[in-house]
Amino acid sequence: MKTADRFAALLMGTGSNREKQNIIWNMIGSFCYAFSSMVLSFLVMRIVGEDQGGVFAFGFSTFGQQMFILAYFGLRPFQITDGAGEYRFGDYLLHRYLTCATALLAGAGYLLVSGYTAEKAAVVFLLVCYKVIDGFADVYESEFQRKGHLHLTGKSNTFRTLLSVGTFLTVLLLSRTLAAACAAAVAAQAAGVLLFDVTVLKRLPSVDRGRDPARLLPLTGAAVLLFVSVFLDFYIFSAAKYAIDAHMDDAASGYFNVIFMPTSVINLAAGFVIRPVLTWLTEDWTAGNYGKFKGMLVKISALIAALSLLAVALAWFLGRPVLRIMELLLGAGYEGSLVRYHKPFVAVVLGGGFYAILNLYYYVLVILRRQKVIFGIYAALTVLAARLAPAMVKRSGIPGAARAYLTLMVLMAACFAAGAWVSYIRGRRKRENGV
Questions:
Q1: 3-state SS assignment for residue 206
Q2: Could you report the per-residue pLDDT of 322-381, keeping only the tens digit for each?
Q3: Smallest Cα–Cα separation from 167: which of 11, 301, 263, 40?
Q4: pTM of the model
Q5: How do the domains of the chain map onto residue ranges?
Q6: Tally of helices (H runs) and strands (E runs) in the chain
C-alpha cells in the first residue's frame, strides 16, 4: 500500500462508533477553527507590533473572510442535504473552481483601487488566498458530510488549522516578516487540502466525480439567494471593521479586533445551543406540532438571552482585569491601550448576544421557507450599515465602531425575531385553514 493510501486509511478510521466520532471530531474541528481565528490577530500584535497586527486582523478576519464567503457561495447547506444526488460531486467541484477564481479576482480588484501601500496590499492578498483555499476545501468537507463521514470534516478542519497556523507562527517568529509568514501559511493551507481532503476523498466509495457544465447555471440559481444573504450578513457584521480600516490607522484595526474577540466565543457557544434543536424544530413544523415548535423556540430564545446577559455581566465586572491581562500579554508599550476601551468591549459583547439571537431566528425563517423575508432584512440593513458605521467611526473612533456594531445587531435581531414570529403565525393560520 502506498504511503498516501496508508495515511488516508488512518484518517478515515472511526473505531466501532462512527456517530460518536462524527460528533467529537466536529466539535474539535469547530473549536480549533474558531479559536485560531480569535487569537491569531492578538499573537501577531504581540510578535510584530500593533500596525502589522491591524493589517493582519483586517485581512484575515474581515476582508479575507468576505472573500471566503464569495468562494464558499453558501453551498454547504445545499450540498450536505442533497442526499438524492441531484448534483454530483464533480458538479459541485466545478462550481467551486469558478467561485474561488471569482473571489481571487474580486480580492485583487479591490486591492488595486484601495490605495493601500504595496506591503499592506501584498499581505491582504495573501490572506485572501489563504481564505479562498479554505473555501475550496469546503466542497470536499461538505461531500464528507453528505456521505455520512462528518468526522472527516472535523479532522480536516483540525489538522489543516494546526498545520497552517503552526507554519504561520513559526515563520513569523523566525523572520519577523508578516508577508513571509502569510506566504508560508498559504503554502501550508494548500498542502493541508491535498493531504486531508483530496487524498482522503479518493478513498470514499460512490463519489461521483462526473461533471456537466450545463448544471452550473441551475446550481448557481439554487444557491444565489442564500449566498447573497450570507454575504450581506457578514458585511453588516463587519461594517464597523471596514469603517475603521477606511477612516483610522492600522493600529486601530488591531485594537478593535482584540476587543471583538469575545464574539467568536459567543458565536461558538450559540452554535452548540442552536444546531442540535434545528432538526427538532424542523420536524415539529413539518408535522404540525405547533405547541412543541413554539415552546422549543421560546426556551432556546430564553437560554440564549440568559447566556448573553451572563456574558455582559462578566464583561462589565471582569472586563478591566481581563483587558489589563491582555495588555501584559501583548508586552511592553501596550499599557493602558485596551483598558480605555472597556465600555466598547462591553458593547461588543452585548452585540454578540443579539447576533446569537438573530442567528436562531434566521434558521427559523429558513425552516419556514421565508427566504425573501431574510433577503429583505439583509438588504435594508446593508444600506443602513454602509451609512451608519462610517459616520459613527468618524465621529468617535473605536467607541463609535462598537456602538455602530451594537446598534446594527439590535436592529437585525429585532427584524429577524419579528419576521419569524409573524411568519410562524401566518403560516400556522394558512395550514389550519387549509389554504
A1: coil
A2: 899 988 888 878 888 889 999 999 999 999 999 999 989 988 888 887 888 888 999 999
A3: 40
A4: 0.86
A5: 1-209, 212-435
A6: 16, 0
